[in-house]
Amino acid sequence: MLKVKFVGAIQGVTGSCSWLWHTESDTQFLVDCGIHQGPHHIEWLNRKAFPFNPAEIQYVLLTHAHIDHCGLIPKLVSEGFRGWVYCTQATKEVATELLADAANLSQLYSQDDVDGINWHVIDGGDFSWGRILTLSEDLIATYNRGSHVLGGCSVSVSWAKEPGAKLKDFASIHFSGDLGCQTDDNPYLPLLKADHSPYPNAEYIVTESTYGNRRREAKCWQTRTSNLADIICRTVCQKGGKVLIPCFAFHRMQELIADLWTIAANQDERLQWELPDTSQLRVLCHSPLSNRINRVYSEQLGKVLKNGKMQYLSNELTQRAFCTNQDIVELYGALHKGKSVTNQRMTFGAAASVRVSGTMSPCEHNLKSADVILASSGMCDRGPSSEYLRLLKDDPKNTIILTGFQAAGSAGRALLEGNQDGAEVVDMSSHYSGHGDQDRLIDNVFELGGYPAASKGTTVFINHGVPDSKDALQQAILDRSATARPGDRQIEQVLIADSKWFDLTKGAYIDEAEDPQSIEAEIRRLQALLDGC
Fold first, then answer.
1. Which superfamily is assigned to 2-215+434-531 in CATH?
2. pLDDT, tens digit (0-9, with 9 covering 90-100), for 247-294
3. Cβ distance 490 to 456 under 8 Å?
């Protein structure tokens, strides 16, 4: 029997964690182990005891490096986990940086716990997506490409319903991780290739639902880059001001660099700018964390698969920016090393993060040599962006472009709600969100890649979303299923994920009061807590 219990992201969009137990081999493992983010009563969940014994977990199958998917792995280590974390090389490298940063802030664990993670990189050697990873006898896992962030993946777990079953007869459950907004037909954010779809014969699909109740209107890359160019031109050339773009250090910063690179390479009429000091628009990237992550992009973005195709990098970006794959890779590598890079009408550089004079802060110094500043963090509550915001927000000549979600109570949300007398505030978050909207989520569930005969009838679990988003996505999937479109996956039922054990072999919830293994596990967990007192 393979059973699953959804531990995290049941009531919201953070803390993703699914606990699976293959009873025949007594193999317990997790898909993701993320931190809970939000108000104090939400973050308090991070200090609660795990519902399982960390020492009995053998694997964590990690979908990507965002902290709400990997942020509690060091806590898992601190409480006895000695198993392996399976992920891509890019995810390992980025997660190591993000977890080290979180160790300094969260006080949930130490750097020693981060260093104690046993990583198992899945994409070494002659790698191809879908490579089989054996977890135990009659239990395997495969990873397939995602477009949410660099290194992101979906994960499929397959098992034999009966001993000795052939691989082609294994049942499988697919975990979407965080689904990106890319498609082959519309490579909207062009840095990464589109997500792979769940296998046609998947009996179960676990899908995120962040935007389960929303359809995004902003799905045109020409509109996005055109708007960005217009805002910069109006601010820098016409008003003589500065543009501040607060952005998340991981992936959003790199996407914005790619967009600016593309704008310059196209030499649009808007770029025939009469700049105050130079013919080159000066772009500075100020984020020590992002600068370290740029190294990962330079090393991993251009990786090539066994079949000779790019593992991650979309050909669309090189076509739009009139450059080669190597040009893109070298751009991030140069920024990581602190070197300036010139592309047509822009100069990119990494901003100074140390004091250069006794009277001037690093941000004040950087403003003297920059027209556009990309700075972390994305909500302006900490990091360089908060200092730049203080320096720029009161001058109407300046513009602040917000490119991500602004939580209630954040400095970025305050800007959106009341900066009428100061700098112009432009919200471009709908253009840059890395999550697929309702249409994309639905299409991913139903796509069969041209193999409709392989569809067995699938149960969908909806997780990782607020209740309204989950309910809306559930109804939308049921409505689509009722139309019975030719070529669509057959859907048997759509369930909102909860914390009860579900027997994936029998397709039914388990009465935990009658499950001897659950009782034994609870006894062991309580004993471990007592031993630690």
1. Ribonuclease Z/Hydroxyacylglutathione hydrolase-like (3.60.15.10)
2. 999 999 999 999 999 988 876 555 555 555 556 889 999 999 999 999
3. yes
